[in-house]
Design goal:
InterPro entries (chain A): 6-blade_b-propeller_TolB-like, NHL_repeat, TRIM-NHL_E3_ligases, Znf_RING, Znf_RING/FYVE/PHD
Number of strands of chain B: 4
GO biological process, one term (chain A): proteasome-mediated ubiquitin-dependent protein catabolic process
CATH class of chain B: Alpha Beta
Low-confidence stretches of chain A: 294-314, 327-334, 349-412, 445-477, 489-778, 790-866, 878-941, 1085-1111
Number of helices of chain B: 4
Largest sheet of chain A: 4 strands, antiparallel
Strand content of chain B: 15-25%
Structural class of chain B: alpha+beta
Distance between the termini of chain A: 84 Å
Helix content of chain A: 55-70%
Radius of gyration of chain B: 16 Å
Shape of chain A: elongated
CATH topology of chain B: Ubiquitin Conjugating Enzyme
Largest sheet of chain B: 4 strands, antiparallel
Protein name (chain A): RING-type domain-containing protein
Keywords (chain A): Coiled coil, Metal-binding, Repeat, Zinc, Zinc-finger
Oligomer: heterodimer
GO molecular function, one term (chain A): zinc ion binding
């Protein structure tokens, strides 16, 4: 047997043959590693260890040697006879260990996630064991933090209780006091009443008695007189005289007795010193619970959040953070062992490794889907995540539920003890660990060198290694990091919470931002409009009644008024909004108004006042009729609303009345005439034929203005403006929802051209009616509004100067309603001019701009009130408007307007260019405008297409170099009002200007620190009047150049104080001329008005340096 | 420090369990690849009665390469130099993985009984062995008695 044994032993490895290979010399050796080690790779030979015979190695390598089948049979035979267990490594192929790169039978190591040989694996496990003990020490050290927190929580609990108790006590106290006061007062009042009652009663009964007595006496006297004062009885003269006296007295008494009914009629009235409703409200809400940040623990978190938030002005930054947090979350969110069961292998790589442990099979199936219910840990803040996760996970879970029932049980035990915060469970509860510990304790198992359960109970790992390593193997990285994290963060627990909290908060913010406006608008529009509508209606009616306007018109007005009020609150700058709204509404009214009949209006009107939709209808309907009147009123009202700018406009109305007359004469279209009539009428107020009303509605804005002016004088129509506004509001909402600004602008521009038709075509108006229904209407209205706005903006510039312009504008506004209308509008004299004029105000961005613009029209009339900006505009447009006045009706002007408006809208700042552009645009405008309009109207997607075009490279300019047109480190770019591109060519220390086609125009500046010299300028901006504002980085100053590139002034120097810069970089300016500077190296956030430079920008006297931390 | 190959463990176990007569090989406590070896001088040889200490080290790639063996005890032998290095073919080019520690030590024992002066390592000894074998044998006995018999 011994020899037999030796025959089966490879002489190289002294082990049982494994895959014996037969050499030509008839000696056999294991293929691996024995034969492998014998190979002389240089000579490709194998030297037999037994006989030293040398054999060439087959092409395939030692594998090519034939297997000694006989020997294998013997091996099997022997194994059967001896009852040996099969070789555990049988069937395995030796691989290079991924750690020591020795050839060996490798098994995956959870520690390094590689396949490693036994030796390396054991070494790794040793490392793991050490690490576990080390981390355990850390945990022990860090555990007190948790305990501290526990203490804090307990303290907080008591604090909370005491706090709440105290507050409750206070509330009770207050309640008692209030109740007592109430009761006292009540009692007092009651007593008073009782006393009063008693006294009065007494007096009354007294009086009653007296009266009865008197009555009886007199009665008896009378009877006696009747009975005995005749001839039958003889009376003495004195007696008779006395009787007569008595009777005379009685008569006198009866005559004079005047019961002072007042004394007893006076009623006791209970009068509250305060409005009972208010009092009730006060009492009902007599206190609030102001929850301040409870304790240091949470407060710290919140503060942190606050801090981080405060810095987060930039959206991008916040977004970025959100993302990061989200990421972090997800990472953090991973369950502790990556979702595996304790001691279970990671989801095995595709290859199969046999597992030593019998239990392995049970766990093999487990994967992440098994993550036990997430820890609540971040649940509060991460809810969204969790929900998502759970959502995604659920299905898979359920699917596998059946298969894994057994397994789930196991996990459940673990889950049962899982810490709700960290997801850590008790190792001692893990079945594997328990078993392993049992084994150790009983010592019945072969001496597996399981260290006594480490601080935490050891897990039974499948391979007789200590459980803890298994844990780590699986999730070592995760776990360790997690442990560390927990050590760090658990105490504060800020990290996890914070992160989740932020997103949530941000979400909230977003939601708030998003939601509030709409609901607010709606609510405001609804509620206010309703309330106001009623009130306004009444007022209007009253006022209008005297005005002798038709009832229909009055109702309309109120509705309009109602609507506008809500809109303002919604979101826009009050002045601009109101003006815009009024204008737009006016325009809208015009459109819609045309269609509806008065009767319809009336019908609609009544419901409209109550409900928003009806209202919109109503407004639209009302627009038709009221439009004339209402528009007038609206315009006037709008102006009022607009405050500063409006005020400027108001003055204009005065001229306007004169203008209407022009309009009448000039108006080519019926509408215009109508409008003029209306305007005329409005003063009269009674005249409005429906047709006229319709016309007015179309013409709306301009007329309205003029009328307003008149109205203002008359005071009758102020409320009408609101009505127009209401419409406008509805539109606005719709616009805001659907339409991008660019579109709008374009639409407006074109609308002017086609304006005349809209009236004629009732579809638009009908549409307006339809507009009640959100979808159809919204778009439609939005389009209209935009157009209107544009129209308004125009009208404000051009129109105001000349009433004629307004007329033209008016037609435009109607055009907006229907695409076809646009064409008509173009050629016809515009009815909707007013809309156009006001349309500008509607632009959100332009709110500022618009405000200045509006003043301009007014500015013409009263220059004193005008802001510098307004003056500027006035200079530009004023002359024009005047020029136009004579030719006001001319289609050319309308075209100009139409063109100009779009241009403006496109370039907000480009308003200065309007003149040139308009002029240029007029020839082109018809076709382009029509096309654009058509597209716009048809798809409503033109802005989108434009936007899509933006993604394409239009052209590129320049290359590296110092010649004109070349750049070296260009660092800033800006677009001037004339569409020039201004580039800060930083390392060439100059500013280059290119026209809109990228053709070099000019350059200025050179290296240096003097005036007009730069040192690596960084940012460049161009304000509305074409001045260049340069952030001169290394000179720590801002320089301003005039449009010709001549130095105007510089300000700022290096430093950290106000008005000082430290490497200013980004720079921009707003419509008012405020300059915003990124003060790069001054890492602080400042926002202050530093200087009041009149000189910097002619039109805007303000200069603001806005320091921002550069991110 | 990879763990010991199975073969070394097996060899060691076998050396312990079935020691070769006249040879003892004990692994170092600190290094399982290092063996303290004692070989008795073969009978009928000038080294008879001596106990020769050797050290044996199994290199990393053992058994693919030969173990390093060296006499610690001084010995007068033509194939063993003053430093105890052994000139033995199976320790050099004739090594075969089929050989084991025990076979190597047996070979060394055999070498003691059959010196091969034709393949000398200690030239002077080999010279004398060839020229005057009796003198050489006497020297060998003397060295054995002097160096290998006290302990």
């Amino acid at each position: 047997m011994e020899q037999f044994e030796s025959l089966l032993t490879c002489c190289v490895c002294l082990d049982r043959y494994r895959n014996p290979k037969l050499l030509p010399c008839q000696h056999s050796f294991c293929m691996e590693p024995c034969m492998d080690g014998l190979v002389d790779y240089v000579r490709r030979q194998v030297k037999c260890p037994e006989c030293r015979a040398e054999h060439r190695i087959p092409y395939q390598g030692v594998q090519g040697f034939p297997t000694n089948v006989t020997l294998q049979r013997f091996l099997e035979l022997h194994a059967n006879i001896a009852g040996e267990l099969p070789d555990p490594t049988a069937g395995q192929v030796m691989e290079r260990c991924n750690v020591c790169s020795e050839k060996a039978y490798c098994a995956p190591c959870a520690h390094c996630d590689k396949k490693v040989c036994e030796d390396c694996k054991s070494a790794h496990m040793e490392v793991l064991r050490r690490e576990i003990s080390r981390i355990n020490n850390q945990i022990r050290r860090g555990l007190n933090r948790l305990q501290d927190i526990l203490g804090v929580v307990e303290r907080n609990t008591t604090n909370l209780q005491t706090n709440c108790g105290a507050v409750a006590g206070e509330v009770d106290e207050i309640h008692k006091r209030l109740a007592k006061a109430l009761k006292d007062r009540t009692d007092f009042l009651r007593n008073e009443v009782d006393r009063y009652l008693a006294t009065e009663l007494r007096n009354l009964t007294n009086l009653k008695d007296n009266l009865e007595l008197e009555l009886g006496n007199i009665q008896s006297n009378c009877d006696l007189a009747d009975k005995y004062m005749n001839d039958d009885v003889e009376w003495e003269d004195t007696e008779l005289v006395d009787t007569k006296e008595i009777f005379l007295k009685t008569v006198e008494f009866l005559r004079n007795f005047d019961y002072e009914a007042g004394d007893y009629n006076r009623r006791v009235r209970f009068i509250m010193t305060h409005d009972p409703n208010q009092l009730v409200m006060h009492v009902a809400s007599y206190g609030e619970l102001n929850i301040t940040q409870p304790n240091a623990y949470s407060s710290g978190i919140q503060q942190n959040q606050g801090l981080t938030r405060s810095k987060s002005d930039h959206r991008l930054a916040t977004q970025f953070r959100q993302q990061e947090e989200a990421k972090g979350w997800q990472e953090n969110d991973e369950p502790i062992l990556g979702g595996r069961k304790f001691g279970e292998r990671r989801p095995p790589p595709p290859e199969k490794h046999t597992r030593d442990y019998g239990a392995a099979d049970d766990y093999s199936g487990y994967e992440s889907e098994h993550r036990p219910t997430r820890s609540r840990f971040r649940s509060r803040f991460v809810k969204s995540h969790l929900d998502n996760d759970s959502d995604t996970e659920q299905p898979s879970r359920t699917v596998k539920a059946e298969q894994q029932k057994e397994k789930e049980k196991v996990t459940d035990t673990e889950d049962a003890t899982r810490g709700p915060l960290s997801g850590i469970f008790r190792l001692s509860d893990c079945p594997r660990v328990m078993q392993r510990i049992l084994d150790v304790d009983s010592g019945k198992k072969k001496e597996k060198k399981e260290p006594p359960p480490p601080p935490k109970p050891v897990q039974p790992t499948p391979q007789a290694r200590r459980p803890p390593p298994a844990q780590r193997q699986q999730s070592e990285d995760d776990e360790i990091s997690r442990l560390k994290r927990q050590n760090k963060g658990a105490a504060s627990s800020q990290e996890p919470e914070r992160a989740p909290a932020r997103p949530a908060q941000e979400e909230e913010r977003n939601s708030i931002n998003r939601k509030p406006p709409t609901p607010a608008r709606e609510a405001s529009s609804d509620g206010e409009s309703d309330d106001e509508s009623v009130g306004s209606l009444q007022r209007n009616q009253r006022k209008t009644a005297p005005a002798a306007q038709k009832p229909a018109t009055t109702p309309r007005r109120p509705s309009a008024t109602e609507a506008p009020a809500p809109h303002r609150p919604a979101a826009r700058a009050p002045s601009t909004e109101s003006s815009a709204s009024t204008e737009s509404s006016g325009s809208a009214v015009k459109h819609t108004g045309a269609i509806l009949s008065i009767a319809e209006l009336m019908e609609k009107y009544s419901p409209g006042s109550t409900s928003p939709t009806p209202r919109s209808r109503f407004s639209s309907a009302g627009n038709e009729r009221t439009a004339p009147a209402a528009t007038n009123g609206t315009t006037g009202g709008a102006q009022r609303v607009q405050s500063r700018f409006v005020g400027s406009q108001r003055p204009t109305p005065a001229p306007a009345p004169a203008e209407p007359a022009h309009e009448d004469s000039d108006t080519s279209s019926e509408e215009e005439t109508d409008s003029s009539e209306e305007s005329d009428e409005e003063p009269v107020t009674q005249r409005k034929p429906e047709s006229q009303a319709m016309a007015r509605s179309d013409i709306g804005p301009l007329l309205a203005r003029s009328t307003n002016a008149r109205n203002d004088a008359a005071d009758n129509k102020p409320k009408e403006t609101p009505a127009t506004q209401s419409r406008y509001r509805t539109r606005q909402t719709s616009q805001t929802e659907e339409e991008p600004a660019p579109r709008y602008s374009a639409g407006s521009s074109y609308s002017n051209r086609y304006g005349s038709k809209p009236r004629e075509e009732e579809p638009p108006s009908s549409i307006d009616d339809e507009s009640k229904y959100p979808t159809a209407r919204s778009r439609y209205l939005a389009l209209k509004e935009r157009r209107n706005r544009l129209a308004r903006s125009k009208s404000s510039h051009t129109g105001f100067g000349a009433g004629d312009d307004d007329d033209q504008d008016d037609p435009v506004s109607p055009t907006t309603a229907s695409p076809s209308a646009y064409l008509a509008a173009r050629y016809g004299s515009g009815t909707g001019g007013t809309e156009l004029s006001r349309s500008r105000s509607s632009h959100a961005l332009k709110s500022r701009e618009s405000s200045p613009e509006r003043p301009t029209p007014g500015a013409e009339k009263d220059g004193a009130a005008l802001s510098s900006w307004a003056r500027y505009l006035k200079n530009k447009y004023g002359s024009r408007g005047k020029d136009r006045d004579p030719s006001s009706t001319s289609s050319s002007t309308s075209r100009r307007l139409s063109l100009g408006l779009p241009l403006r809208s496109a370039n907000e700042l480009a308003s200065s260019d309007d003149d040139s552009k308009n002029a240029a645009g007029s020839p082109i405008s018809p076709t382009a405008a029509t096309a654009a309009v058509a597209g716009f109207a048809a798809a409503g997607s033109s802005p989108r297409s434009q936007y899509m075009q933006k993604r394409r490279l239009q052209f590129s300019v320049g290359s590296r170099g110092s010649e004109p047109g070349c750049f070296t480190w260009p660092r800033g770019i800006a677009v001037g009002p004339d569409n020039t591109m201004v580039v800060a060519d930083s390392s060439n220390h100059r500013v280059q200007v290119f026209d809109s086609n990228g053709i070099f125009v000019k350059e200025f500046g050179q290296y240096g620190s003097g005036e007009g010299e730069f040192d690596c300028l960084a940012g460049v901006a161009v304000n509305r009047i074409g001045q260049y504002i340069i952030a001169d980085r290394y000179n720590h100053r801002i320089q301003v150049f005039d449009p010709q590139g001549r130095f105007l002034r510089a300000f700022g120097s290096q430093g950290t104080g106000d008005g000082k810069f430290n490497y200013p970089w980004g720079i921009t300016t707003d419509a008012l001329g405020f300059i915003y500077v990124c003060d790069k190296e001054n890492h602080r956030v400042q926002n202050q008005k530093l200087h009041f430079f009149h000189m910097i920008i002619e039109q805007s006297p303000f200069f603001v340096e806005h320091r921002k931390k550069c991110l | 420090m990879a763990a010991l190959p199975r073969r070394i463990i097996k060899e060691t176990q076998r050396l312990m369990q079935e020691p070769v007569p006249g040879i003892s090989a004990v692994p170092s406590e600190t290094n399982a690849r290092y063996f303290h070896v004692i070989v008795t001088g073969p009978e009928d040889s000038p080294f008879e009665g001596g106990l020769f200490k050797l050290e044996l080290f199994l290199p990393e790639d053992y058994p693919m390469s030969a173990p390093k063996v060296r006499f610690i005890t001084k010995i007068y032998h033509p194939n063993i130099d003053r430093l105890g290095r052994i000139c033995l073919d199976i320790l050099k080019d004739k090594w075969s993985p089929a050989l084991q520690i025990r076979t190597v030590l047996l070979s060394i024992q055999a070498l003691l009984s059959a010196p091969n002066p034709d393949d000398p390592l200690a030239n002077d000894v080999a010279e004398l062995w060839k020229v005057n074998e009796s003198e050489a044998i006497r020297n060998a006995k003397e060295w054995t008695r002097r160096y290998a018999m006290d302990n």
